[in-house]
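Exercise: predict the fold of this chain.
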Amino acid sequence: RSAGSSLSTPSSSKYNVASTSAPAAFVTDLTSEDALEPMTAGARIGEMHRFWVRLGLADPISRKLARQGSRFGSAWSNPPALLRRLHSLQAALPTLKLAPILDQAPGLLLYDPQRLRGKLVELSVLLPGVDVLKLVATAPDVLQRDMSKVTDRVH
């Protein structure tokens, strides 16, 4: 896996984000007009694939995310909204690389950042002594689970 690099969001924030299978940075310059060009909910998979590739995401993951737009509509085929969601996801999980998270648990992109932070707190209480961020880096889908069911499985 490659190392992270700097990412510029429309608000000029910087993040370390890495691609899982390509040496290029996951997200290059999010301020480019190409990256922010609006698309309709019915945007073709090819258009969304190019959007994710322009952000530096590796081809297998970018194709997977492009298909999300075709299957699920507007939230997944609106680049400005996706950029805001990427910003929010990175803010909620600042030390984690987004590319593996988007590959393994793309639905987290649609989660409210406060809810994600709450789930991290719940996990840390549930699993004292466990590095919760390391756990999430390895298995990000744990944040999509109902924490009461995780509690039942641990106890």
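Check your answer against the key: The chain has eight helices and two strands.
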